[in-house]
Amino acid sequence: xxxTVLQPAALGAESAVxxxxxxxxxxxTGQPEKQSIDRELVTADNADQHGVFxxx
Length: 56
Prior knowledge:
Strand order of the largest sheet: 1-2
Structural class: alpha+beta
Mean pLDDT: 93
Order of helices and strands: EHE
Number of domains: 1
Largest sheet: 2 strands, antiparallel
InterPro entries: Peripla_BP_I
Strand content: 5-15%
Low-confidence stretches: none
Number of strands: 2
Helix content: 25-40%
Oligomer: single chain
Distance between the termini: 22 Å
Shape: elongated
Radius of gyration: 15 Å
């Protein structure tokens, strides 16, 4: 295997908490209903920079 991809779960969780707080306090999230989370290419050269759920 030459590479894999990491979709950082920590980033998604952080965004969800921020949007939940915004919705509770203002009634709106300020974001579209469907959102994407960027993925990161993980190779042998940068694998040590990544943890299980996000970039270190």
